[in-house]
Every structure is written in structure tokens, then in C-alpha cells.
Amino acid sequence: xxxxxxxxxxxxxxxxxxxxxxxxxxxxxxxxxxxxxxxxxxxxxxxxxxxxxxxxxxxxxxxxxxxxxxxxxxxxxxxxxxxxxxxxxxxxxxxxxxxxxxxxxxxxxxxxxxxxxxxxxxxxxxxxxxxxxxxxxxxxxxxx
Amino acid sequence: xxxxxxxxxxxxxxxxxxxxxxxxxxxxxxxxxxxxxxxxxxxxxxxxxxxxxxxxxxxxxxxxxxxxxxxxxxxxxxxxxxxxxxxxxxxxxxxxxxxxxxxxxxxxxxxxxxxxxxxxxxxxxxxxxxxxxxxxxxxxxxxxxxxxxxxxxxxxxxxxxxxxxxxxxxxxxxxxxxxxxxxxxxxxxxxxxxxxxxxxx
Lengths: 144, 201
Hints:
The complex is a heterodimer of chains A (144) and B (201). Chain A is α+β, with helices and mostly antiparallel strands. In chain A, 39% of the residues lie in helices and 23% in strands. Chain A is built from 3 helices and 6 strands, in the order E-H-E-E-H-E-E-E-H. A 5-stranded antiparallel β-sheet of chain A has the order 3-2-6-5-4, with helices on both faces. In chain A, a hairpin with a 4-residue loop joins strand 2 and strand 3. The longest helix of chain A is centred in the middle third of the chain and has 21 residues, at 63-83. Chain A is globular, with a radius of gyration of 15 Å. With 201 residues, chain B is α/β, with parallel strands linked by helices. The A-B interface holds A 1, 3, 8, 10-19, 22-23, 45-51, 62, 64-65, 68-69, 71-72, 75-76, 79 and B 1-8, 12, 14, 42-43, 45, 47, 56-57, 59, 61, 73, 75, 77, 87-88, 91-92, 94-97, 127-129, 195-196, 199, 201.
């Protein structure tokens, strides 16, 4: 069974992810982000569904609610950008006392949410997210 | 758009409760949350104004067990009903797989129901989806108010105003008291999963 990613460009209804694709996605999330000290990283679609998630095992979070809110938040900020004449805002980041959250668009349909603490600097995180994003774009392109 | 994860054998689908303001969309989700509390592992998420109106959306994830060997996870959302929140409604509809249209049975709300359905059709079009094709269920809410002598729209009128062309399944319900709330949800889940069935090999 080797079904592939289907584009939503024409109102397509479904994305199908193969085990091979998901394994590659997990490897990128683990090696490029978890290994540098990120607490958790989740790839979601713009509808708020979770594609893949990896964490360091130290926190139990309600990831489904987080994904729904992140997709809504990202959509709202994109609409705001449009209202002030920007195509999009390049940096979406919320800073907390212990945890920070960073959102990054992977493609028009997918979003990467990264949660990290003080031990990782924002600049380094952005660099690693950019590297991971390039790899994810290639994996998501398979079969499209 | 639904996500089918062949590694975990899991399907995620998004169902949105749509309809005019104060029609009972949030009350539907609150009833479901209360009724299935033991099977829902998380809190219901709501983004409300101080006046207790939905500002962005409500969100309730629910696992309904296995179909064809796949774990089915349904994400229930509501939209804000107030007319001014059109752009927010459009955002929530992104990637929707099934819709419950919660119509307000109050006689004075006839026009609002029709306008809300039109906005739903327009918003779906903006995502290249058609109201004629997407899984859809109507719920005629607040039928319990008839007993209190409050003037309600006859169901035949609601059907004629909203459902004469679409011919979707419909339920008379009371989101506050519970009759047909679960049946409405079950019906839209069945229709939505049915529409994905060809992808579940």
C-alpha cells in the first residue's frame, strides 16, 4: 500500500500519510529539533489536525487543543497581516517564563509548532526550524 | 480536510457546528461534553467574550472507537454566530469535513437562519467546497420552547426555508435539555466517515 499525499488545492478532502512518510517526518522532528533541546514539536495542518508529534517525554500536554488553537491563531494572524497590507508576518513567537512557543509555516497547508525553554535561543531555534522546514517540504511533496 | 495516518491507523476529521448567533451551537457541544465526559480526555476549549458569547470557536475532541480498523478521532468546533464575525467563521471552516447547521426555531429568527445558511454556502465556496456536496445535517433547535408557549417556526417552514434544495437529514432538538443532540452528532459523524470510506483501505 503506497498511498501518497494529496493536495488540498482544489478542495480535496483528504490527506493520506504513509508509514514511510511519517517515519521520515518523525526523524526530522527528532534529529533536527528534539536533539538540540526543544521540549516538543508538532506538525499540524491548517485545519488543526495533528500529523506528527514528538516530545522529550517530560510533559503531558493536551496537544489536540493546542493544535486547534495554534491553527486558529495562525489563521487569525495571517488575516491581520492581510488587513494591514502585509502578505504574512515572518515571526510568530510567544514568550513565557519557562516555556516559549514558536509557529512556522511549512507550506500553505502545514504548520510546525515548537515548544522550547531557556536553554535554546530564539535565533538558534529559528535556524533549526528553517532547516527542518526545508526537509519537511520535500517529504510532504512526495507524490504530489 | 481529514488526515489519514496509515502508520497509527488513525483518522482525524473536523466537524463544524454552524448557524445564527444564540442558536445553541455552543450548548450542543456543552451537552456532548457533559454526556460523554468519561470518554473525553481533555477539557472543552472555549474562546468567549465577557458577555459569554463565542468570540472565536469552541473545540471538543472526541474519540469514537474503530471503523474498518482505524481509530476515529473527531474534532468538534463551533463558529461565532454573530454577523460581525464573518472572517472568523471563515477561518474556523478551513479544512472542514462535515457540518451541522443549528437553526434557531424561534419565529423571530427566521431571516437570520436563512442569512446564516447563505454565509455558510459562500464561505465553503471560498475553500472550493460546495454546500451541495459536503456532509451536512440540520438541527432545528429549541423545540422544547413550544411547551412554554413561545412562538416557534413550524418544522415544515424550516425545511422549506433551509432544506428544500439540500435535502439533508434533519433533527428537531433541544440542545439545552438534550433530545436529539447526540443523534445529530452521530448522524454527521456517520456521513463524514462515509465520505472518507473510499480512502480507508
